Fold this protein.
Amino acid sequence: MDSLITKANTALPRSLRTTDPVPQNARKYNHIANKKLRTTLRRQLTNAERSKALVKDAELLLPNEAGKMEVEGDMDKTWRTSQDDIVNAVSVEAAHGRKEFQLDGGPYRAKYTRNGRHMAVVGQKGHVSTFDWQTGTIHSELQLRETCRDITFLQDHSHYAVAQKKYVFIYDRDGVELHRLKAHVEPTRLEFLPFHWLLATVGNSGYLKYQDTSTGQLVVEHRTKLGACVTMTQNVHNAVIHLGHQNGTVTLWTPNLPHPAVRLLAHLGPVCSVSVDQSSGGRYMVTAGMDGSVKLWDCRSWKEALRSWNSRGGNATVAWSQRGYLAVASGGAVNVHSPPSIHIAHPAPSPPPLYLTHPQPAKPHTSLSFCPYHDVLAIGHAAGVSCILVPGAGEPNFDSSEADPFEGSKARREREVKSLLDKIQPDMITLDPEFLGKLATPRKMTEGVDPDTLPFARRPRLERLRIQGKADVTEDMSEADVTTDDPADAAVARERDHAERERRKMRGKGKSLKRYLRKKRKNVIDPRSVSVREHLAKQRAERERVREISRDESKSKLPSALDRFHHR
Amino acid sequence: MVKISVLQRAPSAHLPARPGDPTPTHRNLDPLHHPFSRARERIRALNAAKMERMFSKPFIAALEGHSDAVEVLARRPNSITDVASASWDGEIIVHNSGRRTHLAKIPGAHKGKVSGLCWADENRILSCGVDRNIKMWDACQDAQLDPSEAGQSRLKPLAVFPGKGTLHSIDHHTKDPIFASSSTIVQIWDETKSAPIMDITFSTSAESVTRVRFNPSEPSVLASIGSDRTFILYDIRTGKAERRVVMQMKNNDLSWSPTFPTTILLASEDHSLYTFDTRRLDTPTQMYKAHVSAVTSCDWSPTGTEFVSGGWDRTLRIWKEGRGSQPEVYHTKRMQRVLATAFTADARFVLSGSDDGNVRIWKANASEKLGVITARERSAIEYRDALKDRWKMDAEIGKVQRSRHIPKPVYKAAQLKRTMEEAQRVKEERRRRHTRAGESKPKAARKKVVIAEQS
């Protein structure tokens, strides 16, 4: 009733409702006898199709265009363009992103917030700073005077966590120490999972720990058994943590599994950097090893590296931008490769074509991070942090409900509350985030119960319908369509169903009386039945002959000279 | 020559143009920018389902005044708030459920209990009792009196119609000035005549007829239920009983659907309710099973999509038409056996009269917010409803949506009932397995309800 009332109050008037015609290829569900169900399904499908079309339209209406660098002739190369050229070519506003922070106490690591507005840098000697890089407002600046290994913002720039010599500490925006997480000993890397409100840390002891930052609980700790770990990244699309280890393996972790979900031997030496491609929905992963090679992996098959190449100088750091630009920092330079060509499998070890290169002599390059929603790449190195311009790296159109670079304090508060309400439980993290809302796999029969002796009434409903021949086989067909697109499969399924039904029909065959009658019938020689039997046999022979001929014809269509001898 | 363009954002496009303006928002519907959209939507649906349970406080008020059990309720035609109730001590009260006041109070309307009550028109009430009289009252004359006087005033009925035996029920024709009463026979009366104008009874029936109701949209058709487990349809144009259905158990109440003239609802002693299509009386169209004791009363919502039933198990249940299980269930500690139920004319509230002498008002939708709802709140409610509907198949969300707290005796009784039904089913199955194949076929529960259909 509630829906009735609310609909009556707020349903769109008929004149304002959409008048788009129903999509052509929409299913009609004519096989469904229940009128109400059929109408509901049709309406749902129509709405879904319409909204799909609207999404497509909305793509055309996106206001901003991504940055780019284009050459006219084949002889021109984009990688010849230096940062100075780019800065000179673009407007002052756009060139604002190019910055050099000369800092003591390096090497430095830099991270951005999810909306790309704020930046946190940490030097190994204990210099921590968080600031709004666009306006240049410094939020906090700390000299911690102990080894700091990593920094990350929590839900937004109002809190950040620093991996210090012994523990992880959480500071607020103004640099006031809020928490000392004593459970996280000697942390080396930090990652924050924003939708689950989890702070994941890994340390020299080789433990991966998840701390819920909304409740303060240590959710789970996993013993990796692979020694100290200094390489960690997250897949933003499924919140799986990727760790790179000393023995060359890369492991994928979720809070609900005590062992890695995937274990992969990626390199022959230690793994020194891992990154996951956001632009392909977390499909590709790139790893760099101390052995000097950089490898590209397909996260769906893990069979073999799609592509691998040697980076000059070894010990590379890799990072993937929002739009799929891959930055590799090794030797004395940072190389950026542009998207479509990276993902193409390439058997021979060769790097994908270069898009941009930037010499950065201050080694080691400890961190690479692309600024979300901007064409900026922050390189953390021994002499500080440098931000370079990478045209095309950043997503041009942001969504205010997810991450807004221009949000005010009210919007920030609002979003914090909303995201707390929408907090996903840690055990929902799986490799496939789309498993929710899918059909459950059919339950197995209980052990020790013979399915054949199970009375009809106790069987599952679908099976009962199938036995009665009332099951909707078309639903299974649509499943088959999704997976194989093969009508033959559907036909096979239908055939199987039919056979099953027939089998059930023949149930009364073994009855004693019928058997007796059949036996009796066999012994009686009745001239009428004899003639009928002969007739049937003749017909069967005829059918057989026709089939034989058609088979022969299909085998050899071409006329042969020996055809004239063929007896018809 | 290299063409270079770098992303730049003008703050002017993203900040409010003037102070006080809303901040401009931007949308990018690309699913890549909305990670975990499905998981987040599920969490939102779960929260919505939990909120619904949290805010489901259906009880609104108890209308006091009776000193004995309330057995009959009759809502006033063309009024949302007014309802008449009558109790076992022979008192009739007309309540205004909105202001929770008495519009009229007729103490001692009958000697003994008042067994039937209905409105003749907007101002007059017809009542019948075990004192074998039908009386007509003016329900509005008290409205002018001040409330202190209203209690004391001994009212005179406008008319008295002497009946034959103990009267059980009374109902008025929708348009014409005639009404039907039931004792051991069904009698049709004219308002202006003191003797019945017609006696209609099924030929072989001699037991008492406990309820009689006119069909609201086909007003010459009349249905009755009796203590001899029968349910009879009459037509006053022919003056005959047209059909009689003998059922397994006796029925306690009946109600015609206000929107489907052929649908009739029966509240049965065997803990369930049945809807029948009067064109096909051999099986009920739907069984409604959840009560753990006899169902004593039922009433359709004016929309015809829902109905309410009250039971001997001290609960009130609200059913969706066509959905035979999992009704909404209402109860309170102080409510005793529910003897009468009614929907209000706006379908938003439910009234119940019970053994403890109170008439209670309940929300028909337990978690509905009463009062003014802003447009923003309304849209949030609609969004939550859509989410709940979309995710109702999810195990966790469905569990939250289905869970109801019910009193322990009711819970235990339901458990026991389930166990007994299961045992019976198993026994039946075993018996069937040991008989010759095909000799005893299972019979649907729906088809066991009706024993015989006679005409």
